[in-house]
Amino acid sequence: MKDSNNGNWKLNLLFGIFVALFLFIVGRFAFIQVTGEVQGVDLQEWANRQRTNYSEIPARRGYIVDRNGMQLAQDLTIYRLYAIVDEDFSPNPETRINHVANLEETANGIAPIIGMEAEEVYSILKSGVDKGLFQVEFGRNGSQLSREQKEQIEALKLPGVHFIEEAKRYYPNGIFASQVIGLAQTNDEHQITGITGIEAQLDDYLRGENGSISFHRDKYNTKLLNSNEVIVEAKDGYDVKLTIDQKIQTILEDAMSYVEEMYEPERMTATVIDPKTGEILAMSNRPSYNPNNLGEVENWYNDVVSTPIEPGSTVKAFTIAAAIEEGVYNPNETFKSGSFKIDQIERPITDWNQSWGMITYDEGFQRSSNVAMSKIVWDKLGPDRYLEYLRAFHFDQPTGIDLPREQAGTLLYRYPVEQLTTSFGQGSTVTPIQVVKAATAIANDGKMMKPYVIKQITDPNTGEIVLEKEPEVVGEPISKETADQVLKAMESVITSNVGTGRNRYNLESYTVAGKTGTAQISGGSSGYLVGHENYIFSFLGMAPSDDPKLIMYITVKQPKLEPYESGSDPVSYIFKHVMENGLHYLNIQPDKERNETYHDFEMPDWKTMSKDALLSELANHELVPIVIGNGNQIVDANIEPGKQILSTHKLILMTDQPTMPDLTGWSVRNVNEFVQLAGLDFEMIGSGFVSSQSILPDETLESGRYLFVEFNN
Asked: The PASTA domain covers which part of the protein (predicted)?
């Protein structure tokens, strides 16, 4: 009887557990039926995801272009390689194979194209099969492939091999205003993100918004008849137009590269500005970098705006401007040069030459006398009044230029010795952009302009201009009359027999107003460095001198000089090369007799002339253009009629029957001009000069044809 009771108890317990489990399961099903959720997951959404093919439509990152619309930064289409290794992706292998069936053949085919060993590719494919993966990728070698590589792989007709189209940021001009434009690169999420320069500063404008496309599919990724396709259009990033002029910037980069190679300076900066508007037309630094091929970057910073320096004697132009404005500057008054001592300082202020004796203040400025400037500040203006002018020229604050990481210099002005040394550019520091901004007041009738680089931002989706900048007067530290007198004094630095700029900064076609500078370099606790090369050599120049259309400020730190060479040699080369060609390019009327050996003239009207007549006229001016094709009519050229043909130009004429030229030895700039004329779909790698091209010379050209070019130094 006892055993029977025990058995019933156990049976009842098991039955109770079964009923409880049954009720729980039924309740769970009922809950799922009502809510449609399991552990917080919406089953309908999960099912839709499982049977929905979703892909992003990438937005184009905004272009960065120069003031004339020339592309300086753009997206370049690249490809990422992947291989499907799941044999289930081929439901009917007898009729069609959709996966990688022959691992060895596939590895041998794609390995040499992507720069890998066949064994390594095979290992990746085999590992994917062994692990039951659906697809595999090939790391860095399988990403950022060019269209040429993609087409080579596609020509092999290997099943299961596919590509994902992506974008890479590309800079057509290589080393070109690199610290201004900046750098954008693809991150781990395959998104292009700005890192430095304009690319970083305007990343929110440039980035854009990706779109998407989704549709229902079967397990073999085949689109269903009733697919519920949904398309969300991508919104391309905003396009940014800079004040930079591609032609002037290219001339500047060429000059900077030449000086860098010849003199190997520690640092260089150069800036070209329109003094009437404050627009930066060109800006360059050395060391620089090629954003398409970084290598080891020595200098990420834009020293023009980020690195304060002691400016040296270029500041003397602003010192005499203050004295003229106050009416205390008499250019014909004489003083004893050599040294100047006041009771408040231990050691006297000295000139770099002790043998001038009694000279006028005008001659003191031409000779770059430190004593002249010290006496003006101490005896005539007074240190407090001079400080007011330094602040009026905004040497105590950033310029507000629309570039990242701007740093202002520091006015060291507490003690009498600092007040004197500041008058001739020692002790206190400024950035090159501060000097350029202050100089606009001298060149622009006393009105000081705010420098800027961003000209316009446009929404390409609507054509709307979302930002447009206009010239802005930010101060008027001196009058027009004072500005005119300072320009004459600066011109005399170039024309006077005793001027520090004589025979070094003269231009062929234009008068120049300028001021040289030779700044000592601080050696820390040991004071200033000594030696022939241990200076920052600089020049502040404007032309034409009576009404400047361009200002240039150049600094070259510690160039390697021969004993017979001057620090002005590398500086003057940059100034003369850029200023002369830049003014001619802008069609500024020469204001002095030109040297007959200098060659340039206006481009004839090739739109109306016959080919033979045009070539004949060019030959009369000793110009031999590159003629593209064998047609009888010129239909396009890289220089518009009426524009100046500079000595730096490679003249390209396109005929009505274009054929491919031999590009060997061409520069990036020249190739860019050619492909725009020919309307080719252009892609390149490397830097320097052309070493190979995908379209052979003399082949017939058609608009839209793909051209791949490799450059080597």
From this structure: 597-657, 659-713
Residue of 313, 337, 374, 538 marked catalytic: 313
Give per-residue pLDDT as tens, 530-539.
888 899 999 9
- pTM higher than 0.85, yes or no? no
Domain 601-712 has CATH 3.40.250.10: no
- 254/649 Cα distance (integer angstroms): 12
E-assigned strands of 441-509? 448-449, 454-458, 465-468, 473-475
The secondary structure of the chain in percent helix, strand, coil, rounded to multiples of 5, reads: 35, 25, 40
What is the predicted pLDDT for the residue at 190?
74
In whole angstroms, give the CA distance from residue 702 to residue 706. Answer: 9
Domain 54-242: homologous superfamily in CATH: Penicillin-binding protein 2a (Domain 2) (3.90.1310.10)
463-499 pLDDT tens trace: 999 999 999 999 999 999 999 999 999 999 999 999 9
Length of the chain: 713
Q: Is residue 37 over pLDDT 80? A: no
Q: Report whether pLDDT(28) > 70.
A: no
Q: Which among 405, 180, 183 is positioned nearest to 294, based on CA atoms?
A: 183
Fold assignment, 246-291+303-585: Beta-lactamase (3.40.710)
Q: Predicted confidence band at 338 (pLDDT cuts at 50, 70, 90)?
A: very high
Q: Where are the domains of the chain?
A: 2-50, 54-242, 246-291+303-585, 601-712
**What is the distance between the alpha carbons of residues 108 and 95, in angstroms, rounded to a whole number?**
24
Rounded distance, CA 439 to CA 435, Å? 6
Token output for 295? 């290598």
Least Cα distance to 539 among 484, 578, 509 occurs for 578
318: helix, strand or coil = helix
Hey, what are 133's tokens? 């993966």
Residue scoring higher pLDDT (273 or 209): 273
